[in-house]
Amino acid sequence: MSKDEHDHRHCLELFEKLSEYLDNELDEVACKDIEKHIKECVPCFVCLQTLKRTVDLCKQAENRMVPEDFSKKLKEVLQNMPKTPPAG
Ligand SMILES: [Zn+2]
Question: How many domains does the chain have?
């Protein structure tokens, strides 16, 4: 196994899908693609966990508990996020 085998372009593609993944808006194939990737890619796994927690916190507390550094990154992510009406 080569250390450089990991293709970070795939990480970027995946990153764009994470918000949809968290909202269960992806089809099964896309979900499995992400799940397979995060098993092999620790940075993406950590990112997904962090994003998931942050999204949960945002829903509960509307940014009050989000660390500043991360909220900056999250804003960049959210800007690329398709606008979806809140479910329910
Ligand atoms: Zn990755």
Answer: 1
Distance CA 83, CA 1 (A): 40
Phi and psi at residue 76, to the nearest 5°: -65, -40
Ligand 1 centroid – CA 63 distance (Å): 26
**Distance from the alpha carbon of residue 52 to the mean position of ligand 1, in angstroms:** 16
In a domain, residue 57? The reply is: yes
pTM: 0.54
Within a domain: 87: no
DSSP state at residue 26: S
Q: Report the separation in Å between the CA atom of 23 and the middle of ligand 1, taken as the mean of its atom positions.
A: 19
Distance CA 44, CA 27 (A): 19
pLDDT for 32-44, tens place per residue?
A: 999 998 898 888 8
